[in-house]
Design goal:
By secondary structure, the chain is an alpha/beta fold. The chain has a single domain (7-253), classed as 3-Layer(aba) Sandwich (Rossmann fold). The chain has helices spanning 15-28, 41-52, 54-69, 74-85, 106-115, 130-133, 156-162, 202-208, 211-222, 243-253; strands at 7-11, 33-36, 97-100, 119-123, 140-144, 152-153, 170-175, 185-190, 237-238. The strands form two sheets. Strands 3-2-1-4-5-7-8 form a seven-stranded mixed sheet, with helices on both faces. Strands 6-9 form a two-stranded parallel sheet. Strand 4 (119-123), helix 6 (130-133) and strand 5 form a beta-alpha-beta unit. The termini are far apart.
């Protein structure tokens, strides 16, 4: 069970999540982390089929093969990023972790209430219910790998490049509301891709260049100086690339 702390984090884990959490620990010291179980893949795709239709989802699943084939050589690039930027993609020994089935479970809400945080940092979780968002009197602040509102949802950095908009390759820190990455924006980062980057390195590249905005947002939250704003961009939610879309972006723009 989480102990009282000014900050608490919610995540399902993953390298870019721990990169952000460890950066916050460097700034604020230790704080508890609630880790939810990942959603079963079969349930995820079933929900996508209801939302997008079976043909589009089948094309998304087919795209996973060529995406997998582009992984060769990216481990070296990722290792270089870890060393150059001093990234920590794993939980540190001694991290106070509470495992829960979901951020929307009673177990998660009990852990939040026990911590009594002044700010909740969220990275890589499922949609958070209103019941969880109102379980503690604290802002829920999300790190999103994409420039909102134009690149809400999944793989925002990839889609910005695939659409020929490298100026929108970056990340957003925003308040969480009831929508998908629709909350008011606190900070955004603009990050440059480098030679050899592809689908497997984009999240790492954005994480390496976005730790500062996460720290600033949490500093603002703890000092009572959050200043959310709106960004004048068209709003669109993105999902996984389809087979045709992925191959087209690769051949036309060199974005793999």
């Amino acid at each position: 069970m989480a102990e009282h702390s000014d900050i608490i984090a919610l995540t399902s884990g993953g390298p870019h999540s721990w990169i952000m959490i460890n950066a916050l620990r460097d700034r604020f010291g230790d704080f508890p982390v609630i880790v939810e179980q990942g959603e079963p893949e079969a349930l995820f795709w079933k929900r996508r089929r209801r939302m997008l239709g079976p043909l589009r989802v089948a094309s998304m699943q087919a795209a996973r093969l060529p995406i997998k084939l582009t992984r060769r050589g990216t481990d070296r690039i990722i290792s270089e990023m870890i060393e150059r930027h001093k990234l920590e993609p794993e939980p540190r020994p001694g991290t106070n972790i509470t495992h829960v089935p979901s951020v929307n479970s009673d177990a998660c809400r009990r852990a939040l209430k026990a911590a009594g945080p002044r700010a909740v940092f969220v990275v890589s979780t499922r949609m958070i219910s209103a019941q969880t968002l109102t379980s503690v009197d604290a802002p829920f602040i999300n790190y999103h790998s994409g420039i909102n509102p134009a690149y809400r949802g999944m793989f925002g950095g990839y889609f910005a490049l695939a659409n020929g908009e490298p100026e929108h390759f970056g990340a957003t820190v925003h308040l969480i509301d009831s929508g998908v990455d629709t909350g008011d924006i606190l900070y955004q980062s603009k990050v440059q891709v480098e030679p050899g980057d592809n689908f497997h390195t984009y999240l790492w590249r954005m994480a390496a260049g976005s730790r500062g905005i996460v720290i600033r947002a949490m500093e603002d939250a703890l000092s009572g100086q959050l200043s959310p704003s709106m960004v004048d961009l068209p709003s669109k939610q993105w999902f996984a690339p389809t087979l045709g879309g992925y191959v087209w972006a690769g051949l036309r723009r060199g974005v793999w």
